[in-house]
Amino acid sequence: MVAPARTFAHDGIAFGGDYNPEQWDESVWAEDVALMREAGVDLVAVNVFGWARVEPRPGEFDFSGLDRILDMLHAAGIRVNLATGTASPPPWLAHRHPEILPVTEDGTHRYPGGRQAFCPSSPVFRDAALRLVEAVASRYGAHPAVALWHVSNELGCHNALSHSDASTDAFRRWLRTRYGTVAALNDAWGTAFWSQEYGSFDEILTPRAALSARNPGQALDFHRFSSDALLELYRAEAAVIRRHSEVPITTNFMVAAHIENMDYWQWAGDMDVIANDHYLDHRLGDPRTELSFAADLTRGLAHGTPWILMEHSTGAVNWQPVNHVKAPGQLARNSLTHVARGADGVCFFQWRASVQGTEKFHSAMLPHAGTDSALWREVVDLGETVERIGEVAGTRVVADVALVFSWESWWATDAETRPSAAFGYLDQVHAAYAALAGLHLTVDIVAPGAPLADYRLVVVPGLHLVREAEAAVITDWVARGGTALVTFLSGTVDAEDRIYTGGYTGPFREALGVRVEEFAPVPVDAVLRLESGGAATLWSERMRPTTAEVIDTVVDGPAAGSPALTRNAWGDGAAWYLATLPDAETYGRIAARIAAEAGAAPAARVEGAPREVEVVRRRGDDRSYLFVVNHTVEDVRVHAAGFDLITQTPVSGACEVPAGTVRIIREECAS
Q: Which of 594, 584, 561, 391 is nearest to 478 (CA)?
């Protein structure tokens, strides 16, 4: 039997957030629904943390409250994203079955009192969770309010890497499936080093804390296994739902700078619609650009189709060292940036700010101050804007630059033992993306091995782990006339974390026309001078060109006199190699030169071209929309023609975008 099509359909762009009525007396519910209608809310996630209320005792279910709230929301025309409720087990489950608890790498348990107090590989937890899903799905599978199913919540946010006995058993089974024999595993992990050769799978543990650095092959496979274990949990819940409902199913990804444990390239195909949670991370140097990167990566996971922003914040969060409030207008800019980059839904955590519990200081759509507040007025204004721009839904982002991104490379690069701990994989990725964003170029984020025919420029930042076939997709594309920029550490190891010998860059070596002989990391406080007058930091390489042209050279430091930037003609195209980490200004100049050679251009021309202005185009079969997000404190002018959906005014030739505002222009013709 062929499964029915499960496409998430919504009239326009969805607007709403997490609704947790169990936190409130029922006397508040009617007010909530009335205020949702006032704010333009048309989609809410319900039952995300409802397990203890729905199943207060083992096998004893009480759906009375959930029945009433779903009926109230449906009567008000508000659609429901119904969660399975399995994200946070009730205290009775761990009390009766402490074996479900996660175990950290030092062998200690983590206990109830927070959330996700379970080991993803625990069969006892899975049985209890699936019993709950069966009860919820059978009761609400045909409920007219349910527009989307929400499996668990932020799977793996806290408990992705569990070292329990259940995980150990599951890890061994996973390894047997992957390798077949212990001999093959020993070869893959290089266990001849440090006398680590295994005689049977039963001898293998998860990579628990050791007195020294642990086997990197083992650690890499444990990341893979842990991601797969969580995905299997998703699949098990989704399979139960599919027996009772034809409504689409998803879970909320966490494509963000501080979440690395799930390989979402492997997850995406199991989702009926891609959804993501994203929060500005002020621990980063440039949280605004990281927001755009995360949105582009989420769109990449959706293969360019529209996706849903399941959670973000109206203001401050509660889990960073300093929880920054958003500036006036920033709420709209952040939200509409996600829409510009492919989101067809804008939702928040949460609807009404909690007055108790861990997240009581987390912002919400309805703040503690109530409706007589600037934040509430911004939420209502945003709801009106989302309603006004609904015609954008269903269109797709246009990009002629691709950036190759890999969770496996993230895990392998940021291992315990590496050439330099002064930076990580994301530092390279974010630096390359920021250089492109500063040129107003729109970027698709793609997986290693993804087709590249639609792009003019491909950027490969620090692709440390790469299979030969994945590298060949890039080098063959260059040979057919493409332009690629590959940066340092790319091509260092294969899928088993084994070094490609003969000179670093491995399977990229011939196309790049260079031979990297030795890494030469740079102290954190050192600045490298480049012959061009630019500056760089953190990394250099002792390398020599074989067929490449040297474009720039490192003047000082441990690799003084070695190339910093090269260009190699490869077939009908050009392969550039960047052997250091330039500062932002230098990187911008390099990116501009290569983009110009490749013919990659912004969606529209911004006068003065301040980098803090984002310009993105979404296009449908018969229409296109130009998004301009002005993050600066100055008005800017963008060349465009059409009709501005924000101000409801025509645009002829150019559009003034005041400081801190957004314009969305329905263009006169697709371009």
A: 594
